[in-house]
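Archive entry: two folds, one per protein. Generate the first.
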Amino acid sequence: MYFTVFRYILVDPWLAPKDSFGCFASLPESMPFKACDSQKSFISMPICDLPKSVDEILSNVDYYIVTHIHPDHIDMNLDGTVGNPLDKKIPVLVQNEDDAQIFKNSGFANVQVLSENGLYINDIKITKVPALHGTNIPCGSAMGFVMQGNNIMKELNIMEATVFTSPNPLTLICSQNNDGTTNLAPICFVSYLSFNPPMIGFATGKQSHTGKRVRETGKAIVTIPSENLAQTVMACGSSTGENTNKVE
């Protein structure tokens, strides 16, 4: 979801419940799609739940942008029509005339092909740009897009940005000291990197004791402490584990 000063724009609105689509290997012949990576052909999709209810996601949306029509980017029926959960009166921006025709056949009233020359929505300009669908093996045509406008973005310094991105969940990173004891470090800079394979990343200073221990051992445990441990967890950040046994 993109929020601009004037508009909510929903991109590639695939709204199916987790695991409801099945996998590419189980698709009927009427839907001739396949995963470019054969190892992913048997993974049930979607692989995660929606962050909100469908009604919440669709509320206040002004435009849909569909970068390409694949069953893992927009809800698709066996007859090839698309977008059942969507409001068909809301404008749709697509990459080419073929995709536009599919949306028109699906009952959408306002379908526009986005061009390299751009399209203005109030003072926002949306321009089509080339896109590569599939990292290792091309998986069909797709488009990217660029949004420009006088009021669409404001540059923020890092401290200003924390107002919009905080508070982050506080985690307790466990690493192993040279003597085999456990080192603990409270860290907020944690993010999911991948669902498949499952990967989580966290950031810590290169010279920090935790950073050194993780790089040397190649091991770390990311834990999420409960609220009743808040003061204890914060105390772990008041000293370095290089010369302090934080578990005790």
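Generate the second and append.
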Amino acid sequence: MPRQIPACQIPIRSFTGKIQAMKRRTVLALIFFAFFFLPLSVGAQSSESAPLSADDWRSFPILPASVSDGIRLRYRFGLADGNVPTRFSKIGDSNSVHTYFLGCFDLKEYDLGAYSGLAATIARYRGSFARASLATRNGLTAADALGTHWDPNGVCSENESAVDCELRLWRPSIVVVALGTNDVYRSLTDFELSLHEIMRKVLNSDAIPILILKADNLNDSGEFNRIIAQAALTYEVPIVNLWRAMDPLPNHGLRGDHAHPSAGSPRFCDFTAQELSAYGWPVRNLVVLSAIARVTELLSEP
């Protein structure tokens, strides 16, 4: 325990500095509440304000506001055909590797803070959070997820893509699709074609994809997020505006490489106000966990 210094011995300059630091943390917490919690709640409650153009992707709600009747029906077909209602899969790059992304919920290394209501979602999907998806790895692009020469363990069929293999072996009911960071080094057309093919594969399995608008700043024009937004509109699937959730954070919630979320390591799933107002990883994990909870709720509606 730190040595306690009597209040009369604390220099005035030090005491003033502590107050200023507390004020800064309070302001950051209020900023986070305004930019994250309020848009999250409004987006979840009202679909009328959701933009209809992919060009307006920056204004999309953080969480999905609704799902179409067709998507809800497809989900039910999938369950009837053997998809598991307590499983989800991930398709993504290093930002989706379970060590950092959602894995903490299986490992019980988290603090839900004010979001204790998410405990039911953690219990429902236990086993999916820390599982190593066959369609997630460092450096993955959308085209790579469709490749057939990648399986080092021999668990996939010959000429079976990473996406097809993951869907066949795990039989998820929901699939989190977070791509685009590594695709900035390839053409927009290749990314768009590959993303649409992934959407078709997931939907043909009667699982429901949740698309993630990427938060990195590797492509200033925003064209990759526009493509992701357009795919969500085209296939009427849920979309999460991670960019909007992380943008108000210091350095947009990113490390110095402008590609990976920041963290007060190793607290990737600490949902206290201090962590959520300062670092990208807690926000990414909270937003996606909230999206899984929200989409599960929407899909279960009559």
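Annotation attached to the second fold: Strands lie at 84-92, 172-178, 208-212, 239-240. The first helix runs from residue 12 to 45.
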